[in-house]
Fold these 3 entries.
Entry 1:
Amino acid sequence: MSATGATLAGPPPAGAGLASAPARGTTLTGTWALVRFILRRDRVRLVLWIVGITLLVLSTAASIEGLYPTQADLDKAAQTANDNAALIALNAPSYALDTLGGQAVFNVGSFGYVVMALMGMFLVGRHTRADEESERTELLRATVLGRNAPVTAVLVVAAGAFTVLGGLITLSMLSQDLPAAGSVLYGAAMGAFGLLFACVTAVTVQVTEHNRTALGFAGVVLAASYLLRAVGDVGDGTLSWASPMGWAQAARPYAGERWWTLLLLAAAAIVCVAVAFSLLGVRDLGGGLMPPRPGPPVASAALVGSPLGLPFRLQRAGVAAWTVGLGLAGVSYGSVGQDVHDLIGNNSAFEDIIAQGGGSLTDAFFRTALLMMALIAGGFAISSTLRLRSEETGGRAEPVLAAALGRTRWVTSYVAVALAGSLALMLAAGLGMGLTYGVAVGDVGGQVGSLVGAAVAFVPALWVLVGVTLVLFGFAPRATAAAWAALAACFVIGLFAELFDLPGWVVDLSPFQHVPAMPAQGFALGPVLALTAVAAGLIAAGVLGFRRRDAGY
Amino acid sequence: MTNAIEVSDLVKTFGRTRALDGLDLSVATGEVHGFLGPNGAGKSTTIRVLLGLLRADSGRAVMLDGDPWNDAVPLHRRLAYVPGEVNLWPNLTGGEVIDLIGRLRGGLDRRWRDELLQRFELDPTKKGRTYSKGNRQKVALVAALAADAELLILDEPTSGLDPLMGAVFQDTIRELTQGGRTVLLSSHILAEVEALCDRVSIIRLGRTVESGTLAEMRHLTRTSIAVETERPVDGLTSLPGVHHPHVDGTRARFDVDTARLDGVLKFVTDLGVRSLTSQPPTLEELFLRHYGDELAELEGRPSPDGSATDGPAANAGVGR
């Protein structure tokens, strides 16, 4: 087109660029360029994950010594925990709890592994299926880029990130003067577990066409490995060997290190990568393993009958999956309840706790288990509400709002699904728990009633999360991701308040702390009404905010 | 009130960006109004203000005698809209989306809907994610055209459609407007605007620069003429309204202001015409002239007379 300088610069002759590059392109061509690209896109995000998890581990490890200043304290704590099936089911198997290192690992517990896995899952999903779904991958794959390059690149980044994070975890432990071998092993086990779930996600993103669904599948694997080890650790430990989280915890840092269990994690990761590559070889870009099927040519009455039709249709699969998942979690916890029940008789160290809690140890266990499940259900409450934002930014809200549907009705229809879904989730959790525990103790009717009641008592707290998310959506739509920070804060308050010795007013910020402690204590109408009123106020404010602002940006 | 849309002095800012900067637009009831402008001129922003999706900072906007922001719901019952970029729900079929939008607007005529599906050769059983860009566009078009709306707001409705479907679209729009419907058509396909529109508004940088019927606007433009005469062409350059003359003995090529066409032609015929070809001004030239001027202004130099129509700047203007 243009002539520059003294000599005419024309287009290069066709094929000139190929002369130096032999026809040797592999399925991995372009991986390094993508690695740099991913690091560029995620430089802030990755640092936040790494710093956040390091701080979690460091602050937990640092708080142990203050909690148990003498060996006598440690011995007492160890004796308490060793027999406490509830704590073991929730946290981790009890190894060397009479040492500072053992206590630190126990207190970070399964929660630490779950967070590591989440980091790997989100990282891989974001750079594989999410890009493919939005057709960005198409742009890249049309260049000189091998078929396996995108997955390989993100796994290379994941491996690097988990190496750094594992190293920082080791340094955190070492900074508390904990033994070197255990510290290195703990960092390695945490990092390896995160990397394994990055690889698991590399498989699930090949199976479905949607990133959301792919992350859901990986989440099911994670939940299963958590529950298997919970049941296994409380029982004879056999089931724990069926769980990747069990393998990581079986490495036993500070308690007679067993390095070889890391090989199980590595082997599983390699199998996942091999499966991912072979699936990539047989599927189409943008497609999953199932061919798309034709759907109905006309809309059903349920879809168009009311404003609720669309949000329900969009989320019915998600609500169903969450409900089944929490129901299964309830079933697992309920089945462990029997073991907790049996332990009460021969455990003297627990009498204090029982006295403090004002109920039986089983009740205290169920209360904690329900809190865990309610916090997890908080993830549904927020993501379901954020559907409003993704509809808006995805340009799909525009044609709906350009029809004769007012903004209030549009917003409230999505909020209704989030509110009702939260209720369904907790009902399923309470029902699953009540059924299995009721069968075990021979009192199905009574246990179902009491545990469903206790589970549903958490629903107003979930509604408050919906309200918080909606206020962000109404007034600060670009900052809606802050809702996840709110949930993370609720997690930390709910699980680590005592350990970190958080001040009372901070603990009170979490709506979950105001839920009546059923079944140990009776139902209290006051807090439930107060939480519901706060939720209603927040939702009303969010709707008003959205009515006033520009839509679609 | 005879105007379906009446917008005056509309201002909308996004942070420091002034997307609309005193825009005026009036669309008479029953007309097809072309809405033209380069990318980023503010067409979609204007449409979103009219739909009550964005709130204008200042200025007046009246649509179907209502306020687009406050009366959004009742107004939307009377209008149908095709967005510039169509995003569908990945797991809903095209048929479901058409019914959903139709129902949200207050119902649609099923026979007319099925007729439109046939005309546009659209398979309603496919899921949103499996449609091509053109087919996604068709889903939005059928959803809008199937509605019994007084006002159609179409934001580049045929982008992604093949020429055959473009023709189907034009036929359908003509059919619909015979029933007295009003259409606001934002488009980059100038032939389509020329074929359909009664009046045209051209905007740039958030401001209206030209508005009127195509005939009025053609009046402002130039006709290109190439002529061969018996006697040498002398004195052409001094005639008013003649631009870019290239005279070579008995042959000449030049542009002439359409308003001065008569006088120039008389001069030429006096020389004895052997052959004459003329090219009428197209909307494209009109468009290029306005956008060319804009580029010249942006570069901070005065726009030399006529240079905008054939300079490199004007060529850059069509680059999409």
Entry 2:
Amino acid sequence: MSSNNVYLIASSMVRVGRYFSKSYKDLVVDVVNELFSSVGSIDIDYLIISNVFSDSILEQLDISTILTQELGLTPKPALRVETGESSGLTAITQGYSLIKSGIADTVLVVGVEKCSEFPTPTMNKHFIKFSDYEVESIYGLSVVNEAALLMKIYMRRYGYSREDLSSWSVKMHSNALKNPYAQLRFLISKEQVVRSQVISDPIRLLDMYPVGDGASAVLLSSKEGIVNNEALEVVDIAQATSQPLNLREDLLSLPATKIVFNKLLSRSKLDLNDLVIEVHDSFSILGYLILEELGLVEKGKAPSIIDDLDNVNLSGGLKARGHPIGATGVYQVAEVFKIMTTGLGDIKRDSCWGLIHSMSAVDNNSVGILVRRCSC
Amino acid sequence: MRLSIPRFWRKRFDYYSVRISECLDCGRKFYPRRSICPYCRSRNVKVVTSRGVGEVLTYTVSYYRLEGYEEVIPKVIALIKLVEGPVLIGELVDVDISEVREGLKVEAVLRRLKSEDPAGLIYYGIKFRPIVG
Amino acid sequence: MSKGLSVGIVGWGAYIPRYRIKALDIASLWGFDPQLVKSLNIEEKAVANVDEDATTMGWYAARSAIIRAGIDVNEIGAIFVGTESKPYAVKPSATIIADALNLPNKKLASDLEFACRAAGEAIRISLGLVSSGMVKYSLVVGSDTAQANPGDVLELTAASGAAAYVIGPKEGSVAYFEGYYTFISDTPDFWRRDGSPYPLHGEIFTDEPAYFTHIVNAVKGLMREYSFKPEDFDYVVFHQPNGRFPLKVGLELGFTEAKILPGLLNPWIGNTYNAAALIGLARVLEESRPGQRILLATFGSGAGSDAFSLVVTDEVKSKVDKAVKVMDMLRNKVYIDYGRYVKFRKLLVRV
């Protein structure tokens, strides 16, 4: 049986983008082939697929079996995980649990999403499904509207102008320039953010994630040294849910995210400035709120530190790396793995610790994992 | 026929008026109506029909293009505090963008939420509009 | 004088959508002579928003009527919706409005169709139901998002609006019915075939053989049966397809302009079909004094007219401010251009 430890031993991904000529199967085959070519042939015990819209877009249920067949991995057991936008990180926690419990020694986690199969209004119909259909989505309310309401409250409470809140997007695009897997690899200015198309005032196009396809894979194992790569240990995982926005005491709080951070950070005295951090910035306002909830900066001050931030969303975040919904959490982990080991393109950090955060909608279902370089 | 009949029909009273819950144990009132209090998990909860009157706390003008909702773009979406206390997110209608403001007094009105096609079902539900007079 | 009726209006409510389009804008788009607009005495018409229909507008008016009535809704034994723009050809609007207002399941409910006078007929039916004791209260709704073929002269006036009345015992009513008279005949002045999006009409044939003949016969019938003279009435409210016909028919029947004008709203809201005369009546109730006598005459193509005589009671004053007033809704307006009108009324084809 296994040890109690869980290691992250390899990762792979394709650049987030619009793959009109590739199916979801093609993308998955690409990343799994790349993963196995980097580590050699390893026997896995379980395949976990993170995917949100398989039945909405791909007309496919039991997608994990279909992919197991496509990958020639039968008769390995497989399952699909879905917790909205945080599915990818939830999938990692499920892989962690399988190993931790001794059910599996090696788990392949693959995140995949095809978001460019339909035109925008149709995709948006699916994107609003993260909210309660019977209470919100039936009225045509979407997460972008909730984020817009929060952004207005934030601007009013702390006295920010619209332009003040553009720094996040500028920074993310700057980071993404160095990430070979990022969807938006170009610089933008604050002025471009403020002048971009209004989606839900004050949120503009350049405040939100782009629509893209993606696939990413990570290999989790109970053994640290089965491949030549340096490995990361998954030290802890945390997950929490919260009531919808309108039932929260303070609209600018992220109660589930707070619980996740408290749990992950309580076990060790970690220097937040020395961590490699990836957070779920589907909308720039959420990026600020997450950093404040993390305690990296006091409430209301996040926009003022963004320009100097050099350890958060080095990938470019959801804003610029992209947000292939069910695959996103797996991307975050795959990227942190590379940043802390072989390098993500030219992005490399010697930090001992990495913190990855994901959430669905505005903090509905939030997940975090804490990783440590094995050599530390 | 893409719109479900029973899914809407069984909840029509929730869509035709603003129904909130009052927890008889902790005293909190909340929207949407539920049988379990989200604050104290009490099942000792009663349903109350709100007067449907409230005020705008904040709002956003949405240009988000959504299949099935194309007719109402741009759309004003507001965080509304009901006079009974609960807060909800709702759509504001019959108001020009230049007229929306925080503190605007609004009332619940019955409107079409969506219909699938000229031959299909129509979903009716509550939206909000400024109080007239 | 009365035929033993002991029935009155217990509560009333009206609804006028917020948006207006100028008749001259429509006229200039389709090349109508501005003189035509002037001769029809029409300034502008009310346009329902894109998410409104006869059901939603009727709901609003009915809610105000119930609030003014101040009654237990469980005592409402009937609901009738008079409309010629039913959102569903088959499926009653009455049941939607009733459930949305939490009316009891034990009641009569029907949508009635008789062009613009179905709601007038619903009032007559309600007189029978209430006076016979079959129901305590009956809710009558007249609501229309009137259709007009784009470019047809009808488009200058076809408008959206609703009115609702709770009919109940004379005791406690704001106005009680003294008499009624209905006159109908097979006169095809205006019709809409099943499946056709717009009605067709006989132009000038809608005038003398239809509107005038039926209203004159109904009103004269009422005056004859109950021995009324024109001087007995303080207000007269007619169906109002345009701003000219009601004045013409009123003067012809011997009423002064001063008695017609308070209930004549067509110049500012257009022809709201089943709600046209009934919004006029609401406006009159809101400014009337106890003891005043009102003549209401509906008209529906096809064709028929109901004439009613009503006397205002002391109760009216306490009810006026309990819900939104017609004058408030007349003032609460935003002008739209033909483009937004087309969008609101879904006159273009989207796929």
Entry 3:
Amino acid sequence: MAEQDGTTRGQFLTLSTVGLGAMIGGVIGVPATAYLLAPVTQETTFQPVLLGAIDRFKQEQGFKPTAATYVEDAKQPFTSAGLAWVHYTGQSGTTWDGKDAMFIVFSNRCMHLGCPVDATLTGFGCPCHGGQYNKQGQRIAGPPIRPLDRFQWQLKNSDSELWITERWSVDFNSSGQIQYYKVKGPGQPVTVPWGGSTVSNILYPPVTYNYPAGS
Amino acid sequence: MPIPAPDTKQMVLASEDWIEYRTGFPTLIRKFLFRKVPPTGWFHTLGSSLLTVFILQATTGMLLAMTYDPSPTGAYESIRYITDQQTLGWLLRGMHKWGASMMVILLFLHMGRTFFYGAYKYPREMTWLTGSLIFLSTMAMGLTGYLLVWDQRAYWASVVAVNINGTAPVLGPFIVKFLLGGPVVGAQTISRFYAMHMLLIPGLIGALIFVHMWLVVKLGVTPWPSRPPVPEEAADR
């Protein structure tokens, strides 16, 4: 073939084929990837749910938290069921996070890897890998990395029913004050671990949204 | 002189030629099966055992999928139906369950054989790497298959396994939501695991097995490891 300026027919066809192939790949691939990854952006939500009549929880003597099952979404009874441990403090405060709060409502989800904890004489214990918590839900032994989550609660129906309205991840600060954080999964710290080095700040960014908002 | 009627052997050969001209399969099969191999032993049977178990898993899995219902309300009941009601359902489910354990065991033995024979070295690095991918995919099959039974053990074991992924730095929380198909275990989770277990990962393993075996045929079976002959002067000392 004689010397030629510009693109040959072969080059043009190769480019067109590759280009068309890439276009088809994009048309299929982009929506497929978005579809596959969409759940990553979803946030945990919590529907307020009735735990039971408060008389049931006020029977408690000493530390024997009452187990209360709940179903968040009646359409999904198998997957939205949960269990809360309701501890009656003997006090009468009806503000859930007050010093004299009547109840502490613990989540039963172990903060090691999410197994259900059982109430023990000294607090809570997890059957899976032996995590132990005290009566405040703070880890005292085993692999859990933070205290048990707590439920925000409210009395309804002229103070006869106990409802849980929100779920909070918690941690205790250096002066022993409980802090409430936006909920995070088991095994994931809400505050920066290992004394808060720069590296740990990057690897495990702290939860910034907490309760009460801005505090 | 009349042409004699072809005997059976000639007819078979003629049919083979007919296929050969049109597909090339007879040559392909001959090259694949009638290869020169070094002296081999029982340890060299582990790879083909794995292939056999994979075929077993694929076959029984396809049949189980015809009855299985990947939904929170139906999964456990459909498995009970397979086990208690369906003709030979207990057997097929048992084969799939024990086959799964067998596949993992054989995989480790096969990997150990490859390692101790030095079969991962030049020129078989890519065979080792594709094998590693098959290993990871098989582990993923174990994880996704475990949940499908949808009993208490399956549920909590999967919760723990998914949360282990959650402890990874930076990406952890995203991996959890990706696996679960949302922030918590739900109806999405079981169908997601099911689709991964019966479509995505088996397809991947099938493709990887093809490449893996292509490389085995191309590069030949690894002979027993042996030392190079010791030079005389070294032996004298």
